[in-house]
Structures are given as structure tokens and as C-alpha cells.
Amino acid sequence: ENLFSKCFWSWSWSLQAEKKAKEHMKYLEDLSMKAPDFPIPLRPHTVWEGMAVKLSCTLQGCPPPTILQDFMVNHSMDLTAQKSITVKLIREAEMNVLLSNSRKTFVIFCLCSGQCLKPSNRLGLQTSLRSASLSLRGMHKEQEGFYSARLHTSDGVVEHRTYIYVKDASAAVLGGPGSPLQVEVSDVNKGYVSLRWQPPSADGASAVEGYYIERCDIGVSEWVRCNQDVQRMCCYPVMGLMENTIYQFRVCAVNQAGVGRPSRPTQPVLTCDPNDLFSTLIGQIRVPFPPTNVRVCELSDTYAVLRWNEPEPRGREPLTFFVERSIEGKNSWQLTSLDMAVISPRFVEFGLQKGKSYCFRVRSVNKYGVSDPSVPMTVLDWPPPPACGVQAVRDTDSSILLLWKEPWDKESILGYYLYCSEAGKEEWRTINNKPITSNRFTVHGLTSRKQYVFRVKSVGRAGNSQYSEQSEPVMVKSAVLLTAFSGAPSPASGFALLLCTASEMLISWRAPAHNGGDPIRGYYLDQRQKARSAWREVNTAPVKERVYKVSNLLEGHYYQFRVFAANISGIGKPSEPSEFFQCEEWTMPQPGCPYDLEFREVRRSSLVLLWAVPLYEGQSAVSGYLVEISQGVESEEWIPVTSEPVQDTYLKVSGLNAGQTYRLRVSAVNQAGVGMPSLVSEPITTQTKPGTREMEIGVDNDGFIYLSFESADISENNLFVWSKNYREAIDATRVRMESKPNKSTLTFNNPTKDDLGLYTVEMSDDTDISSSYTFTAEDLERLTELGWHIRNPLIALKSGWNVDISEQGGVRLWLQTEALSNAAELQLILNDREISSTPARKINFDKANGLVEIQFEQLAREDEGSYTAQLRDGRAKNQFTLVLVDEIAYQRFFVLLGPHFEEFLSWRVTGDCEMIMTCKVTNVNKDTKLRWFKDDVEITDIITDPSGVSIFTVPQVNNPLLSWANRSITLEQAYQHSQNSIKMEFDFNPKRHAASVIRSEISRLVSFRERRIDQDERTKPGSTMQKLWIEIFKPTENDKGKYILEMFDGVEAHKRSLDLSGQAFEDAMLEYQRLKQVAIAEKNRARVTKGLPDVVAIMEDKSLCLTCFADGDPDPEMFWMKNDMEIVTRDQYHISKEHKCSTLTINSVTMEDSGNYSIFVRNQYGSQTVNVTVSVYKHGEKPPPDANVMLVSLVLLEFFSFFNILRSSPISRELYQIKILLKSEDTLKVKHCSVSAENMVFQSRSCQLSGSVT
């Protein structure tokens, strides 16, 4: 074996030497190549006409060029090719190069690394007179990259590059990963090789979990898996190979979907020890020496690869090795190579725990014994993973330049994968399938005028890193936009001295009038002394602010300054020099000058002026600013804009003339007086630019208050800048901003009074486009209410619950709302239990017509209770309730289904002493019978007409009954008082059985001063079964006297008298006056008329609205109390008062808002207090059972009983209004029912008073 090995290596070395010699000769031949050249070119000649001419020149080149005759002396060479090529994996790619006006030239194709390509079975090169082509067959991802074509001509070398993208083939399994690439074999030894590869760019449906490694013995041609467990790292040591055997290796990626396609196989490798030819074999050595230089050549999360040198010198006997391991700090060594014989100086130790440090040592073994251990070595912890970020920069109309920051640990990075997606779609596309080694890359083939986002992840042996944060959206557009105004900015102007010390000056200046089409990137300042002509640079690096501190000046000297503005096009012309400023320390009491005057919101008749506070305050703080204005460019007449100093650093100047030119200046004021004025502003013309729009306020579709500003005339790089009071930043936690290409919206999350104020917006690169809006308390109240209605829309009701009864006894409950969409939902709840259609109860929901129906074939006792229809259509919702409860009402309801009394039994007595008894029945048919009974004995003498009226007549009452009744009469007399009259009563006590007859027979006659008293405006007689009286309204002195009552019962007369005079009259008049005053006070005193329930329960975070109505003359004062403490409007409490009405609103109630609330009303005649208990319960909890949060129990059939009362009254034809209050958790439903006693038909309408409990 040793002889074979030596022969093999000798043959291998000779082949390698021959190959290197050929490559070197080829390299020398390539170096000797030279394009055709004329060291002695053709020269111009002047000859006579008809003479023979001989033109000669010297030509050189390698290989010798072919000479062609051509009378064209100058030839221009051009090279064109495709910008980028994309090919499918395992397909062909072809790159063509066209040569225009080409002569015999050399075209060399090479990779981006500069390696020249040569023809092979997979690579074809063809060159013709005017074109050259490169064909690649059977491409793999490893061949992705830049390809260049170099054209050597007499004018030099012209080169063109293109990037060839190689896409992955279709996945082996659905959702499987792509194939790894760049599988390399390193550290080949006896029975051991080390593999490295790069992870695929496409993970598939899920992230790559690891890899399987496969090997193939060339003599067997069968692929065998090397690892049973998934290998997570992109490297793997393969052990257990046969010595002196040729192998190939490949790798497959694995994810949750399965195993992906295998990678490209490696080149064949021979497993042998490359040091065998150079080892020193000494036969006298028996027990071997220990190995040397034990080290770790590879480290991962789960294993470490150990490497060492064989003992030198070594014996002739074959060597194996023992590997021992111990935790660092413990001298407990364990043999780790028990299950295998280590024949090569390589060993892989698996099962290591991350975070621990280990020590290893190795012993040499032969047939004579085991050597001493080697020097121990320590394996430390693993390095941290890589991380990176990405930045996208506009390049051309179809490409974007990507730049990213490399990780701090560059050694473990193999390259980077790039990904792109259209902004807002989250559809990520792989850009490259071969890792890019640099930290910049230009992505071609993008759609112009579309926005893209990019991200990158680094590739290491440990696998791929996490994705970086995606870049900011960037539009695919040419990076430089050339316009007629492009170029360097115009000169700056207007220098001002803001602050001066003995050695320093603070200088400011105005911005250039034109920025050259690009924002100003910085300024350069120059200075010179008064006695010198040379300018000296003040700052070498550009400064962005227009204020600069100049140091190291000489006190008492005069200095002059100029400034240069710079943009992306370069540095503009210098400004005009400033006046000479003397360097001396300021001690004046007045403040310095304000600076940085800017204009905003220039309109036809107004503008806004902004300025910065002076840097020198003087002896006291600045208390205000004096703003002056001058009309015209040359005018020196300055007029104050305001009569009092301005407190802010901005001012809106109104009342200007449209189209006029103005200049302004500002002076600071302190206790010492007015300071020096600022630089005069640039002339400004008051005019509104076409297309100018103002800021708008409103409520969006989600009910949030917003401010929006839109402008059509803005550039792409312009950004909307929002602020408060032109300078202050807006709290980002209270608002959210959303910007579109031409519109920006500022939306308030939960606006309160803290958000009120002046809001401004302007463009970052064009402050001429600006606007403002003052957010007031009235806006807040108005828009908050509007937003609440938008967030909580209600489904409008057309007709509330109605009850229809058929002749067969069927019942139909129905209601109708506005038309609903197909997505509308209905929930019907009976007694807190959702119900659905059954054979006895059918539910229909017509969404198009908004009709909800419940049909019963026959009502049963289990159908009684509260029916609630809960409707939801998108964001809109509402609920409507009908209550069927109470046993008595339930029974009456079923009575109404058949024949029933429309008018109950009544009686009257005629003048002939006949008693007529009548009743009326309805809903009868031919089988209906009406029967009368007296003392359970049927009466037959009954008259019934077709209308249902039944009459029973009792003949004249006999005299003995009357006589007995007459003897039972006793009379008593008295008088009473009211606030409007004196009432005189005459009492009598007839027997119970005769009272009705006697009363009908008595004729009443009252006389005063022998004159009969009839009913008029001042007197009103009255009677009951036991009393007779007469009321005298508004009594006077003329009402004194004797009153006589005469009664006749048909047999004899009865008289009773009352003397209303003297002390009796005086007492009656005093009591009358007292009662009159009491009645006036009672009528006019303050009192609560309606509004508050006893108990209210409301869910936490909702709004409670308590409304109370009061009456009185004069109008009463109204106060709200909580736990006997007065409530005022502040924080979440808001009290609104109208005429005799007051409303308490509690926004976003909490558990602390529970308690006893009351309304106290008062005026000069009295007061009243009404209490209400408010109970707040949490989400998910049930409200208290006695609270008015649930529906008021309304007995529907008592309603029908009320019909009977109406029908029995003498005014049954009139229309009555019944108000039914239905209270629920979120809304109050007031249902007005119109009831006609004549036809028993009622209609209803209802309205929603959301958020209010009345």
C-alpha cells in the first residue's frame, strides 16, 4: 500500500507540474498578445496629377495581423451587449456582443474576478467580424455573477459587463427549499473530509431547518446519506470513509415541506494522508511519541473538529489515536473515541453543550503500546451571530443601488442574499441565488415609477442570519433630474452680527433666493480683516445652519465675511461681502437683533412672519417683539404692525393689499427698551398662488378627527412637516401621521382640550407651500359628537314591533327597518336565550326590505317573555324589544282572540224609574250566543241588535222600596274651601240598596236670598251618592247671606239652610286667601317634572347622559350633586343647561363614578331634590337586577285593558297618545303609540336617544 501510495502521489505531482507549466506558457502567450498597431503610420503626401503613388507603413502585433486594404483611416469601435440575463437552472445562457465598425480585433470573455473563460464542453465561444457570443450549457447557481467582454483595439480596451441571474429549478416537493451551492471539500485525510457549502437563497414554504449530506463512491455510483440527524450548520466533517477511495459529495436542504433538490456534486477527491510521502519512518521506534499541535479547526453549536500532527519521528508501525475530553477546570478525562478507530489526525466531537468550555488531549497508539497524552487544549464559547441593515438609493429608471452595513464579525460571513418587494404588498422576491461578497449591489429589471422595499440577510457557515429591517420605500426613478434651473445655488445675502465677545463673533445670513433645483447641502464661510485683501476659510466642512460662530479673532479689529452655498451640483458663487464688524464685547442693555426671518402662508391679503429669538438678551429677559412693515422695495417708512409687543415668535399680518410688495423687520424689547432691528426681510408680494389649498378639519370614516393638507405642486423628495405653533413638535403618542404623494393627514387618537391650538404644516424643501388651522373647543365638541355617530351608527327603524292576529288564531310579530345588505346579521333573543325557527315558531329575515317576522301557529305559555331583535349590518347596529309577560295579561290576550266585550255592562235610570242595562260584544259569528243571568238564574227578556249591543230593561221601581229609602235619608251640612272657591256641602246617608234609585229621583234646588242659583261662571253645583254641594268661585262681600237647599223626592219636600255671614264668612274668606297663596306658591315653586330614574347601571368606558326637566316661575336654578357635593364642568364631567332643562354627561365612566347623584332645583317659592343611583359594572359582568339597564317590564296586555276603559268612556272616539319607555343598556327607545278606541288599530314610531337615560 505504501508503494502504491508513493507511486500515485508521484504521478499526481508530475501531472500537476505539467499542468502548471502549460498554464504558465499560456499565460506568457497571452501576455505577448498585442493588438494590431502602426509604429510607422501612413503619412500624408502631395503628388502631381497622373503620378504613381506608393503608400508604405509598418504594422506589428501578436499574432501577426492580417493586412486588409481600406481607404478609411479612422475607425470608431463600439461595444454593445445586454445589461442583464436571467436563465433557468440547468438551462443554457447566451451573451452576444455586437461590434460596430470593427476591424480584426480580440474579444476576451471573462468573469468579474478577471478570470478568462476558455471553450469547454459546457462553454462555447464564437467570434465573427462584427459580433462575438458566449454560450453556457447546463448552468448551475455557482456560475451566477458578472460576465464581461473586453474589446482590445488600437484606441485601448473597451469593456462591458452584464450580470447573469440563475434561477432555482422547481422544488422537488411542494414548498420545498432550493438547492445549496458552492459545496467545497477541504482538509482531505485518511477516512475524513471536511465539507462546506452556502445555504440556498429560497427557503420555500418555511425556513430551512438543516441539511442532509450524501456521498458517492465512484466505483459503486450509489449515493449514501452520511448523517441521520439534520445538520444545521453549513459545514460538516465526514468520518468513517475508506482510505485511498475516490468520493463525490452533495448536500440537500430540508424544511417542514420535505427534502429539496441536491446541490451540484463536488469534484472527485481521494481519501489519503497528503503527508505520508514526507513522513520520517524510523524502525527502531516502538512505543510512539505523543501527537503535537492539537487544535480546533472547526467549531459549531453541536460539535468541534480536532486536528493534530502525527508524532515526528514516528515508527513504521501503523498508528491510531485515542481522544480524551474533560470540562475545563476539572481533571476528569474521558475517552470519547470508544466506538471507532481514529486512523487520521482528525476527529469530530459531537454532543457539546453551548456555553461550556472543554479541554481535549490525544494519545498515539500502535501495536507496541500507547503514548503519553498530548498537551491539552481548550475549546471556548461560540462567536455571536452576524447582523446587518440595508439602504436603497435611486439609480436609474429601472435599477436601484443597495448599500448595507457589514456585521462586526466579517470573518464568519460568506456573502449576502438580497430580496425585494413592491411597497405595501409583502411579496418578497429573491434577487440573487449566489451570495454577493461586497456590501453594495445594483438591482436591475425593476418597474419604473413603482416603489420598492428591500432587505438583506448575511450568509455564514452557521447558516443564514435573520432578515434585516426592510429599507424605506424608494421609487424607481433616475437619481438626477436635470432641469433648466439645475445647477449651483445662487449667492446668499444679508449678514447680521448676532453676538460678539472679545474674541468671537456669531454671524448669520439669509438663504439663497434659488437653490439650483436641489436642497442646500451646506455653507462655507470666508473672512478677512479690514487691512487685508486675502480671504481665509473659516470652516473646511460644510455647515447646514445659517448661523456660525467665528473664533480666534483679535479684539478691536474689523472683520468682513462672505459665504458660499453648495448643493449636489457643486458650490455656488460667493455672496456679496458683509459690512465690517468690529470685534468687541457687547455690554449694551438692550437686546440683540432677532434673525432668520421667514415667510409662511403668503396669501392675497395676509402672510405669516416667523423669526428666531435674539442670542443676546441684554440686561433683562426679552418681554416681546416689535414687528414693523414697509410697503415697496425702496421705501424707508416703517409702520408698526401691532400696537402692543408680540409675545410669540410668529405673527399673522392681515389687511394687506393684494399684489403689493412688502418688507418686514423685527426688534426685540426688554425693560431697557427696544433693541436693534433684524435684517430686513426679502421683498414679498402678497398673492395667492394658483392651486393653493388650505388645511381642512373633519372626521374620517372611522370617526376620528383629522387635519389634512393637500398640494399638487410638490416634488418627490418633499416631505410634509407638521408642527404646533410653527415651531413645537407634536406629541407622537397623541396623533398618527399618514402621507401620500400629494396629501398628508394628521389624525388624533383621542383628542382632548390638551390638543387644542394652532397646527401648521409645510413642505421640507419648499416652505412657500404651507398652511395652518386653529383647533378650537367648539371644533372639538362638534366633531367629537359627529365622530361618535360615525363610529356608532344605528339602523333606522321604519316600523316597530307590531302584532297581527289571524282569524285562525295565528299570531305574527314583525318589525321593519331600512334596507339592509346581504352581510346583515340577526339575533333573536327570548328571555336571555337565543332562539331560532321551529315547527311551531317560524322566523323570517328579509334583508332587502329590512323585515323581521316571528310567526306562531298558536301561542303557548313558553312563548311569554321579552323578545329582542339584535341587528348588525357592518358597523351599524340596533336592537328592538317586545315584552309579553304577566299571567293576567296573558289570559286577557287569549280572550281577545275570540268574542269579547267591547263595552262592559252599564246602567242608567230613566225619568219613568226604569233601569236600562246595556253592553256590547264584538268579534262574534253565527255560533256566538249571549246569555244574561240574575242570581245565577238566566234572564230571557233580552234585546240584542246586529251591532252587538244587548239591552235588558228593569220595569219601574215599586213604591215600598222608595218609601223605605225615603225614611233612611239623613242630611248633614258643612262647607269647605279651595284656592279658587268656597264649597258648601250637604251630606245625606241613603241605604246602600236604595241609594242609586233615590239619587236618580231627587231634584236639587239651591236658593240664595230667595233667588234660585243656577250653574254659571261663578257657581257650580255638584253631587255624589252621599253629598250635595255648591262651589262659589272668586267670592266677594256680595256673597254673604243665607243659602237654602230644597230637595223633593216625589212625596215630600226637604229643606236645609246655611247662614254664610258674620264670623263664618270672615273665617271662610281668610282660609280662602290663605289657600290661594298656597296654591300660587305650589303652582310656581321649583320642581322636577321628568327625567331621572331611581337606579341606572352602565358598563365601564361608556358615556352616561342624565337629563332632567324642571318647571317653576321664575325659572328655577338647577344644580347637579354627587354624594351631596356639587358637580362642575371639568375633566370627564360636562354640564349643559337649556331653558328649564339640564344635562349631566360623564364621559368614559369608571368604577369610581358609581355613587348617589341628585338634581337640586330651587326658586323663590320652593325647591326639590331628586336622587338617582348610578352603578358602573365591568365588561363581561351582569348589571344589578334592579337597575334600569335592562328593559322596563311592560305588560302588553294591560295595554288592551286600557282599550276597554277608553271604549267605556264618553269620549271613546278621540285619539289617545300613549308613551312607552323601553330602556336598554346602550340606548333609550321612546315609542309613541297612537291608539284609536273605535277600530282598535294602533301604530307606532320610535326614535333612538343613544347614550342618554331619561
UniProtKB/TrEMBL annotation:
Keywords: Immunoglobulin domain, Repeat
Annotated PROSITE patterns: FN3, IG_LIKE
Ig-like domain ranges (all copies): 1100-1175
Entry GO CC: M band
Entry-linked Pfam families: fn3, I-set
SMART domains linked: FN3, IG, IGc2
InterPro entries xref list: FN3_dom (IPR003961), FN3_sf (IPR036116), Ig-like_dom (IPR007110), Ig-like_dom_sf (IPR036179), Ig-like_fold (IPR013783), Ig_I-set (IPR013098), Ig_sub (IPR003599), Ig_sub2 (IPR003598)
Organism superkingdom: Eukaryota
One Gene Ontology biological process: cardiac muscle cell development
Classification via CDD domains: FN3 (cd00063), Ig (cd00096)
Residue ranges occupied by any Fibronectin type-III domain in the UniProt entry: 179-274, 290-385, 386-479, 488-586, 593-691
Protein name: Myomesin 3
Organism whose genome encodes this protein: Denticeps clupeoides (denticle herring)
